[in-house]
Amino acid sequence: MVASFQPPPNMTAEVYLDWETHQESRHEYVGGTVVAMTGGTIPHNDIALNFYTSLRSHLRTKGCRINVADVKVQISTQGPYYYPDVVISCAPTDLEARQFIQLPILIAEVLSPGTEANDRGKKFRNYQTLSSLQEYLLIDSEKMAVECYRRGEGRMWLYYPYGSGDIIRLDSLGFDCPVDVLYEGVQFESN
């Protein structure tokens, strides 16, 4: 039997972290509110796995970790707590982490119509408060389009759009990734 989604009222971050360990599905925590995570599409999953696969061996030699979908990022001790599609950290404390990542260097979100506004808006604003974060990727699941936001000086974030045939330069990792690799085997809906 599957347990029903019954988060305690007025949940604190501490209660959320304990409560979620007993749940069968993932939940993000934002401003005292628990948000159940829904399953993504096959293209969404394929894109995240293609990105992971392209980076895995490169990161191993750098002493970094890469995680897909089921690993939380802590914005602060009081939250929010998010589950990005891909998160990379090279911080020694994160290499041994068991519950969440605190110092990501790169976060990627695969966009879907239902999550795009949040990934571009509130979630990105919260991610920007992480001083460790150097790059934020938004990867479209409906067409070949990738956007990279790279930390500049002060509060500035530089914008780099990419399409089919382009190569994404990930400065934080010293890695180049062809956009076409991210979309290998992905089937788009035809109009």
Sum up the structure in keywords.
191 residues, alpha+beta, three-stranded mixed β-sheet, 13 strands
Describe this structure in words.
This protein is of the alpha+beta class and 191 residues long. The protein is built from six helices and 13 strands. It has helices at 13-20, 42-62, 92-95, 116-120, 122-128, 179-182; strands at 27-30, 33-36, 65-68, 72-74, 81-82, 86-89, 100-101, 106-111, 135-140, 145-151, 157-163, 167-170, 175-178. A six-stranded mixed beta sheet has the order 3-6-8-9-10-11. It has a three-stranded mixed beta sheet with strand order 5-4-7, with no helix packed on it. A hairpin with a 4-residue loop joins strand 12 and strand 13. The mean pLDDT is 92.
Computed Rg: 17 Å
Biggest sheet: strands, sense, closure? 6 strands, mixed
Uncertain ranges: none
Helix and strand content put the structural class at alpha+beta
H/I helix tally: 6
Distance from N terminus to C terminus (CA atoms, Å) equals 40 Å
- Elements, N to C (H/E): HEEHEEEEHEEHHEEEEEH
3D shape: globular
Query: Into which percentage range does the β-strand content fall?
Result: 25-35%
How confident is the prediction overall: mean pLDDT? 92
Helix amount: 25-40%
DSSP strand tally: 13
Strand order of the largest sheet: 3-6-8-9-10-11
